[in-house]
Design brief:
This protein is mainly alpha-helical and 207 residues long. A hairpin with a 4-residue loop joins strand 1 and strand 2. The protein contains 9 helices and 2 strands, in the order H-H-E-E-H-H-H-H-H-H-H. The two termini are 38 Å apart. The protein has a two-stranded antiparallel ribbon with strand order 1-2. Helix 2 runs antiparallel to helix 4, helix 4 crosses helix 5 and helix 5 packs antiparallel against helix 8.
Length: 207
């Protein structure tokens, strides 16, 4: 047993530990993944010509019947949109990544609980996947019926040539995933070499 432990310890010391110089790749890839997501989310809320939220975004944030029913909808839309836009920019250059991760996580939590929570976990309805709730299970029948209609009345082969039809469940799955990615960046930081944070720390913080 001791020999086995010693063997794996030697592997770690001689191989894995030497790869630490590349440990900035993982946070870099997380940043690159999140940049377009937050940029698109933010610019869909904020009119960059006026720097203010779109009217339909404010209405969706505030309307209790078909929207989120939030108080102070203009302020909430403004904060959410600019958090996502600035988050994308900061992630792109690797500046203040730990700091910007905090409001981005808060934004994802607000989105999860205000817009997605009632729909359960799944983003795309799949009755055979874990955490399928009653809403997801019922969607299977509707999807099957929709496919029958399309097969009978449309060119189903052409319609599905580029991908299968699905039911959007709009659960918390994506918001939770982005939250966890931001949480990881909060602990790892922006990573070596490919971030302003790294070079600022190297320049001004003594070892």
């Amino acid at each position: 047993m001791n020999k086995i432990i010693s063997f794996f310890s030697d592997i770690q010391q001689n191989i894995i530990d030497r790869l630490q110089v590349l440990d900035g790749i993982a946070p870099l890839l997380l940043r690159l993944y999140l940049i377009p997501i937050f940029w698109m989310a933010g610019t869909n809320k904020i009119d960059l010509s006026t720097l203010m939220p779109f009217e339909n975004t404010v209405a969706w944030f505030g309307n209790p019947d078909w929207g989120l029913g939030m108080p102070f909808p203009a302020l909430m839309a403004f904060l959410a949109g600019w958090t996502e836009i600035l988050g994308a920019v900061f992630l792109a250059v690797g500046f203040a990544v730990r700091w910007i991760s905090v409001p981005l996580m808060i934004t994802m939590l607000v989105a999860a609980f205000s817009a997605h929570w009632d729909n359960g976990w799944q983003a795309i309805a799949d009755p055979g996947a874990p955490f399928a709730n009653e809403r997801v299970v019922e969607s299977a029948e509707r999807l099957s019926r929709a496919k029958e209609i399309l097969r009978s009345n449309g060119n189903y082969g052409w319609l599905t040539e580029k991908g299968s039809f699905v039911v959007l469940n709009n659960g918390i799955e994506f918001a939770a995933t982005y939250f966890l990615m931001c949480l990881t960046l909060f602990f790892t930081g922006a990573g070596r070499f490919f971030s302003i944070d790294y070079w600022l720390r190297r320049q001004y913080v003594p070892d």
